[in-house]
Amino acid sequence: MNGAYSADQVRAAERPALDAGMGAVLMSRAAFGLAVAVQRLIRQRRGGLYGARAVALVGKGNNGGDGLWALANLARRGVAVSAVLVDREAHAEGLAALRAAGGHVLSLPGVPTGREYLSFQDPQSDRYSRPVGVGEGVEVCCRADVVIDAILGTGARGGLRGPAASLVGALALAQAGQDGFPPVVACDVPSGVDPDTGEIHGPVLYAELTVTFAAAKAALFLPPGARCAGRVEVVPIGVEESLGEPVLGRLDAGEARALLPRPSADGHKYTRGVLGVVAGSEEYPGAALLACSAALAAGAGMVRYYGPASVCAVINAVLPEVVCHSGTAVPEKRLPGRVQAWLLGSGVSGDEQLDRCRAALGSGEPAVVDAGALDLVGPGTDRPELILTPHAGELALLLSRLGTEWNREEVEARSLAALSEAVESTGVTVLLKGPQTLVRSPGGLGYSQADGTPWLATAGSGDVLAGVLGALLAQAASAEGADDDGRWARVAALAAVVHGRAGRIASGEAAGGVGRPLTARDVAAAVPLVWDDIRTGR
Ligand SMILES: NC(=O)C1=CN([C@@H]2O[C@H](COP(=O)(O)OP(=O)(O)OC[C@H]3O[C@@H](n4cnc5c(N)ncnc54)[C@H](O)[C@@H]3O)[C@@H](O)[C@H]2O)[C@@H](O)CC1
Ligand SMILES: [K+]
């Protein structure tokens, strides 16, 4: 499984090698990997390296050291390279290597350029760095074929400050406003993003590619930081064995393939999982239809629908497979019919549907708790087999109801903290919907999935996700032998994979297209194709 790690975990894994005096070796591996990735990018854009220009923004620590060594490597391959020093110090050996390879050294206002600086860091050199203002720094970057962001890595605390913040702020404006702005390659993590939480502090550049060392840092799996990271490439540096358990996992295609349920030869509809759905209402019948279609498409052995007679009629007109129950809920009594799992709350409104949701929750089976049913889960519920599926706004409301004031923007800015607080307070599993889908169970590993496409942000898409998750939950609940603590989070992560991939099929991106508008119905219709798509390893 792909995993993302905290800065402390990576530092701890590096410690034995650093204690054994291998710091320079680790850095040379990191810098080599960075340089190779940059060369590839330049070749894709220009066809060759000769005559290309690379600029690195260089901070004072080892992240800057990686950038300097990578530039030296590029210079030896014919690339014209410049380092823009943004701090009062720079990695001494890296700077010497860059100079020896013929690279240019520029420094921002406020960064010393004279002999006192060089005698501190670079006693062998008799060369000075050339002072540049922010405006010239921007021009130098705009003329480059690639900009390497090597200001801050895992040592970052808070956002960029001083000259670095001025330059990156100006570059971010140029990047936002100019089509021809060169691609940015972030070294380890985009500078200005908290490596552990993905929070963005102040100005930050959007990278096309992040080359990260040993393992992905948590920020690369977490919004909003992950949005600045672009594609993520992991360069091994020889400490990977010591990393331990990641803070966040990500199911890849191979794992998803192994987890996707398949019917056994002697199975029948009940062993394949029966899902009870309390969704939709007279006001929103569409939510019920989408959730039921998606559940059938994701392989539920049978779907039972519970709701108003008018919605039952709509469902049966389109989906004759669904068994509908329009009787009202009787307090303290189970709803009729056996099910292995529930999907509750998508598009529900009114007391009747909420009563059905309460009855279903009281019956003890695992359940997806969506939209209108989220209010039914309180503090100390302590049922990991309940999977809540809020978006950021709904999670803010849930947390506020549980006793801590959050708003939507705060949840979006600190998504892992918000998610963890909800899980700890309620004791249930939570799946937070968004461009990255985050999942966490009490005491278990969390997941971050990024399988979808922005085209999925469309009305009804959440109802389809809830239907897919409900079907997978019913199948997991009816499967034998899979009763470890991690299974609820795993099934939620798998639903995010299926939903995301169905979105990419429906938008044409899975087939190599640039993407096109889709409807939630298109996504539901594409769900069965995910089984083929994943089996062929695409
Ligand atoms: N330790 C190792 O063995 C390896 C480290 N590597 C690189 O080293 C990086 C970590 O290096 P460092 O620990 O030196 O840390 P950084 O290079 O991330 O930061 C350097 C220093 O900047 C200061 N700083 C923190 N936040 C700041 C802010 N907001 N504004 C201004 N200054 C700030 C701190 O004093 C920090 O120690 C990794 O991200 C990776 O790129 C790689 O070379 C692989 C090997
Ligand atoms: K960086």
From TrEMBL:
YjeF N-terminal domain: from which residue to which, for each copy?
10-245
Could you tell me what the cofactor note in this record states?
Binds 1 potassium ion per subunit.
Ranges of residues in domain YjeF C-terminal: 252-534
Tell me, in a sentence or two, what this protein's role is.
Catalyzes the dehydration of the S-form of NAD(P)HX at the expense of ADP, which is converted to AMP. Together with NAD(P)HX epimerase, which catalyzes the epimerization of the S- and R-forms, the enzyme allows the repair of both epimers of NAD(P)HX, a damaged form of NAD(P)H that is a result of enzymatic or heat-dependent hydration.
Q: What is the official name of this protein in its record? A: Bifunctional NAD(P)H-hydrate repair enzyme
Q: Which reaction does it catalyse?
A: (6R)-NADHX = (6S)-NADHX; (6S)-NADHX + ADP = AMP + phosphate + NADH + H(+); (6R)-NADPHX = (6S)-NADPHX; (6S)-NADPHX + ADP = AMP + phosphate + NADPH + H(+)
On assembly, the entry states: Homotetramer.
Q: What are the entry keywords?
A: ATP-binding, Isomerase, Lyase, Metal-binding, Multifunctional enzyme, NAD, NADP, Nucleotide-binding, Potassium
Instruction: Provide the binding site for K(+).
Output: N63, D149, S191
Q: Does the keyword NADP apply?
A: yes
Please give the superkingdom of this protein's source.
Answer: Bacteria
Name the protein family: Belongs to the NnrD/CARKD family. In the N-terminal section; belongs to the NnrE/AIBP family.
- List the Gene3D superfamilies hit by this protein, alphabetically: 3.40.1190.20, YjeF N-terminal domain
Q: Where are the transmembrane segments?
A: none
UniProt source species: Arthrobacter horti
Which annotated residues bind (6S)-NADPHX?
Answer: 62-66, 153-159, 188, 287, 347, 391, 463
Q: What is its EC number?
A: 4.2.1.136, 5.1.99.6
